[in-house]
Write a sequence for this structure.
């Protein structure tokens, strides 16, 4: 709600403009019967019209024909005037609600981007998208129509009732006697309809699931020859959905017919009692006609009050759902501001990390020093803490104890964005954006630079692949584009990092998806390009690991082996075991090959 | 895929053929339709009667020569009025109910028709049609179409009736005044139609931008971590901001254009009202007509414009309805390019009416005889392929993607048919038996197991719909699924969730094995998963596979070493040709592709065990 008010404040003038138009329109709407009354009464020569005197003076002419012409012409001008106000009204309403929607969308987008890694890791993607689209839309609709409707109904009621009271107070009360009933019934029904609507939606969802499962499992259905069974299942859900929808129509039919009945009975009451009044000479014929029209004007919109109330409750729910996201702190609320140049010396000092909801340390008292320009290979089982180590390094996660420094400065002192621009990480499952390959590779560039893009693609052994695509560098990739192979995706991710020089580069198991030769050529290219870059490579490939300056083996959050290939090969640890298996020196393999 | 992307574009011209087909779907509802049209006419009548009553009251009771002693007449008038109102309310109620009935029944019927068709469509259809495309037809399109058919049609009738009756009454009462009042109508219609077209185009633009916003959100959420590591937050926000700004601009533009329509119509309406007020007033002055008549004219002229707006609105809705109709019809009318011949159906029945009594037993001898195959518009995958498998043998198919493994399996399952040559089952061309016969004897276990919403019991029984509970339990036990099932909260009655999402991949796999076991097929297809499963489940699954294969002719697209090693026959495929064949030992000795593959996989497996 706070956010919404803040956003709303920026657009308050257009809001007031919209309200002004709405109220003006509602007041002028109540003038229409007045004009009719004026015409009829002057025709019958009945009474002095109760219009403002300047209007009467303006319209009056001694000749009846000119007088009538003046009145009708005035009426047309009046209509034109209202027409312009209507346009102004719609446009300012739309402007207001669309501005709110735009600001809310931008705010949500920015907030989503800034939410922490852990939040995204645990979030339900579908639900987040639902909230950012449907819920914002609900809010937009409420501000476009229903908010102004309240002013419309209030303005209309006040001015119409005022006009009616001017004609006759008692008849006014009689004419509006059903109004509270209409309001009550309207509220009651819309609440009910809302409930049944939810039920209809549930039934539809269940039907949709059935169809979806049938389509996804078409092989299973066909292979088991269960087509008839599927149809029976479908027909049952289909009927259920149909009956529930029909039930909703029954409810709606009841509501509209009841409220129509009450409203029309009200006319009848006004007409009959008004006739008696006119017969008594209390009001003129023109006034009676005006009265009937006034009743008509005010009663129909009142029937919508219930709708507004139910929309309001829906909107509150939507705002609530958005707030649940806005209330989560974004990760930049704890950020450093240091943006000094980074050379690439990394040190871990007794670092421990665990997730909030667990009591087991994922990293346990890790101490480690990496010199600038060094290449380190990290080897270990799934869950040994390799990836966690990387995530700590770029502050996607924050450790509980110990210290990590880069160039001797504690990580938390650096601005996160500065840190991440300097420590390039290629994730295990990289995400490509729905843009062209070229744009994806050059995504961090301020300006498009084809030469650098192609150069990066070459370094990542991707250039030839891209040239094989039908549209070359203009091929759209990502969710909505061409499906790339896992290896190609990885190489796009590598290319988009290689486009810039970074003092520290991290490959989170990203080379393993490539074949051995591509792996090798990328690493060679990397060596040639930037020999003073500090490189961390997570891998399970011995051929990759053995070329590193140093190899670290992690087990259960601890560093158990640390040394060069030649050193570790002599220890009888995990590294040695891997080496034996992958180079074909294990006993089992000997047996197989020997069995020929 | 390209043809599916174009679906959003509407065809603006009127397609007579489409509507002829669509109206046929309303045929079953014709009784309801006639009743509701009568109701709509009734409503139009009452609506035009009410202003007439007003006129009567004003002219009779307030004319000056009305005698007060006759005021009982007013009471009688009131009673008639109330009765009429009652009739009106009742008609409105019936109107909504009947139109609702037509809508829901038509929608249900359209969906059912489409679904039945979907069950019959061959596999090739699903290969080239995205699920989302089909889903859109089953949900939003059928809803939109039936909505327009039911309410639109009745609304058209109501609008026309209302206009006709008002026009008739006006002409009867005073021809001159009627002509003057209605003089603005043609202009009104033209203006309305012009605007509707413009409005439709604008909103299309808004919808397009809206889908971009959704895509933007979805990308920001799914790519959140990547965005962080590349520090792209500001750049993305800027891009997104330009989309939301465009959304605002085009929405406001659409609203502006829409908002021009109503005031214009209203203004023209007021001009009409003004005209009738002026000329009518003059007539009253010259005592050609009464005051009551004038009031009636004014009321009618105001009442006349609603149906006109309504009609133009329906017109643009029908345009959208046509697009929805075209899409649904294209689904219902999709050609069946794989089905049983009439003679076969005659003898063995079709998918829905199986004549099981005529079905032969199936042993499981399979022979490919000079089989050629190519997918539509594709390259040849198999060329004069020959293969003979004896009943009870297990065959492992090994090879790279595109080597023809899946094609062979698809052909055996008769998801596709050979484009040349023939496949014999027990020595007879399988096209001479029914699809249902083959499928009743076929078990198919998928790479990514697919379960249906429902209980564990339901999912196992899917393989044999009339299975007893004992059979279900014994099937589960055979594949070692019993243990995990008994650990779930409600045992066999536990819900598996949508698509089985409450279970782990391994558990889903075990259930899909149980489902195959209970069906007790003679031929088994096993599309093996490469998914990473913990070692314990892996062992359970291995055991399950061994029992599953016993006594059946089985084809395995194999990934697990152990499955391959134990197969009776291993076929190594390359470009649709068998390059190596034999059992594990024989192939290792050949030192070819299989030998290399095996060593690599072995290393990978061992590495995985260590890491």
């Amino acid at each position: 709600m706070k956010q919404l008010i803040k956003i709303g404040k920026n657009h308050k003038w257009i809001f007031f403009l919209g309200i002004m138009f709405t109220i003006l329109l509602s007041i002028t709407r109540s003038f229409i019967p007045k004009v009719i009354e004026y015409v009829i009464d002057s025709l019958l020569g009945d009474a002095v019209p109760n219009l403002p005197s300047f209007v009467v003076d303006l319209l009056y002419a001694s000749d009846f024909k000119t007088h009538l012409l003046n009145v009708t012409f005035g009426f047309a001008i009046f209509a034109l005037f209202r027409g312009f106000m209507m346009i102004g009204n719609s446009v300012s309403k739309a402007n207001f609600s669309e501005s709110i929607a735009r600001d809310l969308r931008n705010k949500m987008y920015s907030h989503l981007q800034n939410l922490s890694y852990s939040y995204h890791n645990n979030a339900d993607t579908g639900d987040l998208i639902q909230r950012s689209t449907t819920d914002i839309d609900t809010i937009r609709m409420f501000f476009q129509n229903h908010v102004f409707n309240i002013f419309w109904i209030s303005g209309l009621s006040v001015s119409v009732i005022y006009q009616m009271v001017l004609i006759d107070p008692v008849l006014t009360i009689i004419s509006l006697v059903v109004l509270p009933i209409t309001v009550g019934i309207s509220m009651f029904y819309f609440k009910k309809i809302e409930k049944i609507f939810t039920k209809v939606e549930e039934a539809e969802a269940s039907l949709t699931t059935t169809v979806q499962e049938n389509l996804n499992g078409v092989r299973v259905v066909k292979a088991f020859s269960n087509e008839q069974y599927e149809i029976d299942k479908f027909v049952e859900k289909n009927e259920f959905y149909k009956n529930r929808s029909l039930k909703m129509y029954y409810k709606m039919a009841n509501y509209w017919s009841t409220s129509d009945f009450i409203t029309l009975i009200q006319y009848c009451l006004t007409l009959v009692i008004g006739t008696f009044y006119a017969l008594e000479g209390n009001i003129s014929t023109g006034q009676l006609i005006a009265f009937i029209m006034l009743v008509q004007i005010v009663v129909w919109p009142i029937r919508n009050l219930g709708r507004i109330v139910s929309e309001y409750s829906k909107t509150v729910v939507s705002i609530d759902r958005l707030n649940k996201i806005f209330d989560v702190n974004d990760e930049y609320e704890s950020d450093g501001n240091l943006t000094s140049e980074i050379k690439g010396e990394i040190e871990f000092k007794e670092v421990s990390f665990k997730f909030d909801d667990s009591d087991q340390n994922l990293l346990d008292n890790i101490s480690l020093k990496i010199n600038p320009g060094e290449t380190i290979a990290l080897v270990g089982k799934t869950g040994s803490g390799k990836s966690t180590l990387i995530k700590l390094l770029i502050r996607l996660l924050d450790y509980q104890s110990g210290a990590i420094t880069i160039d001797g400065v504690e990580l938390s002192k650096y601005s996160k964005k500065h840190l991440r621009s300097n420590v390039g990480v290629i994730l295990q499952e990289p995400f490509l954006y729905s843009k062209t390959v070229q744009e994806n590779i050059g995504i961090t560039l301020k300006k498009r630079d084809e030469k650098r893009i192609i150069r990066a693609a070459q370094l990542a052994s991707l250039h030839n692949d891209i040239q094989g695509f039908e549209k070359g560098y203009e091929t759209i990739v990502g969710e909505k584009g061409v499906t790339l192979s896992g290896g190609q995706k990885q190489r796009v991710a590598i290319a988009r990092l290689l486009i810039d020089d970074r003092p520290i580069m991290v490959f989170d198991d990203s080379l393993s998806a490539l074949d051995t030769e591509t792996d090798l050529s990328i690493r060679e290219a990397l060596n040639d390009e930037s020999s003073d870059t500090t490189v961390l490579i997570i891998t399970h490939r011995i051929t990759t690991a053995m070329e590193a300056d140093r190899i670290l083996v992690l087990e259960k959050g601890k560093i158990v082996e640390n040394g060069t290939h030649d050193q570790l090969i002599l220890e009888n640890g995990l590294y040695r075991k891997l080496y034996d298996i992958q180079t074909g020196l294990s006993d089992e393999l000997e047996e197989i090959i020997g069995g020929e | 895929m390209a043809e599916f992307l174009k679906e959003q574009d509407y065809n603006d011209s009127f397609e007579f053929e489409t509507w002829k087909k669509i109206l046929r779907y309303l045929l079953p509802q014709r009784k309801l339709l006639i009743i509701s049209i009568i109701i709509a006419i009734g409503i139009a009548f009452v609506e035009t009667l009410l202003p007439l009553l007003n006129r009567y009251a004003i002219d009779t009771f307030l004319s000056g020569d009305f005698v007060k002693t006759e005021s009982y007449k007013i009471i009688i008038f009131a009673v008639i009025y109330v009765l009429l109102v009652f009739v009106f309310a009742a008609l409105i109620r019936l109107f909504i109910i009947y139109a609702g009935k037509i809508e829901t029944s038509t929608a249900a019927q359209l969906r059912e028709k489409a679904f039945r068709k979907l069950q019959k469509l061959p596999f090739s259809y699903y290969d080239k049609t995205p699920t989302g495309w089909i889903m859109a037809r089953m949900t939003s399109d059928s809803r939109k179409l039936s909505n327009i058919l039911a309410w639109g049609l009745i609304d058209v009738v109501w609008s026309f009736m209302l206009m006709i009756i008002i026009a008739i009454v006006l002409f009867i009462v005073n021809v001159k005044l009627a002509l003057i009042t209605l003089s603005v109508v043609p202009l009104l219609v033209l203006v309305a139609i012009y605007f509707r077209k413009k409005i439709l185009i604008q909103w299309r633009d808004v919808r397009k931008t809206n889908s971009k916003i959704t895509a933007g959100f979805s990308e920001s959420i799914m790519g959140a971590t990547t965005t962080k590591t590349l520090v792209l937050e500001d750049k993305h926000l800027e891009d997104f901001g330009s989309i939301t700004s465009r959304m605002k601009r085009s929405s406001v533009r659409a609203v502006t254009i829409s908002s021009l329509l109503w005031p214009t119509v209203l203004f023209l309406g007021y001009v009409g009202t003004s005209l009738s007020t002026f000329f009518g007033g003059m007539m009253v002055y010259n005592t050609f007509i009464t005051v009551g008549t004038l009031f009636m004219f004014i009321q009618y002229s105001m009442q006349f414009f609603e149906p006109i707006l309504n009609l133009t609105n329906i017109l643009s809705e029908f345009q959208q309805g046509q697009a929805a109709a075209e899409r649904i019809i294209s689904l219902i009318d999709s050609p069946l390019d794989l089905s049983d011949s009439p003679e076969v159906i005659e003898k063995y029945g079709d998918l829905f009416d199986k004549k099981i009594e005529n079905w032969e037993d199936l042993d499981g001898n399979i022979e490919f005889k000079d089989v050629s195959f190519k997918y539509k518009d594709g390259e040849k995958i198999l060329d004069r392929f020959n293969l003979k498998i004896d009943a009870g043998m297990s065959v492992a198919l090994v090879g790279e993607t595109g080597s023809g493994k899946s094609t062979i399996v698809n052909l055996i399952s008769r998801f596709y048919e050979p484009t040349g040559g023939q496949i014999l089952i027990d020595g007879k061309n399988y096209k001479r038996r029914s699809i249902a016969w083959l499928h009743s004897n076929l078990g198919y276990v998928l790479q990514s197991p697919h379960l249906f919403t429902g209980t564990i019991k339901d999912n196992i029984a899917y393989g044999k719909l009339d299975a007893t509970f004992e059979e279900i339990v014994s099937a589960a036990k055979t594949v070692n699924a019993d243990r995990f099932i008994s650990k779930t909260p409600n045992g066999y009655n536990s819900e598996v969730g949508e698509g089985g999402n409450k279970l782990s991949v391994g558990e889903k796999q075990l259930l899909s094995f149980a489902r195959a076991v209970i069906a007790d097929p003679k031929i088994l297809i096993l599309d093996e998963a490469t998914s990473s499963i913990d070692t314990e489940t892996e062992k359970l699954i291995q055991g399950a596979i061994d029992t599953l294969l016993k006594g059946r002719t089985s084809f395995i697209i194999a990934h697990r070493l152990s499955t391959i090693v134990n197969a009776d026959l291993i076929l190594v495929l390359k470009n649709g040709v068998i390059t190596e064949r034999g059992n594990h030992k024989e192939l290792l000795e050949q030192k070819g592709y299989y030998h290399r593959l095996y060593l690599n996989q072995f290393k990978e497996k061992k590495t995985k065990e260590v890491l």
Summary: Chain A has a mean pLDDT of 85. Residues 227-280 of chain A form the longest helix (54 residues). Residues 135 and 309 of chain A are 17 Å apart (CA to CA). Chain A touches chain B through 147 residues (CB under 8 Å).
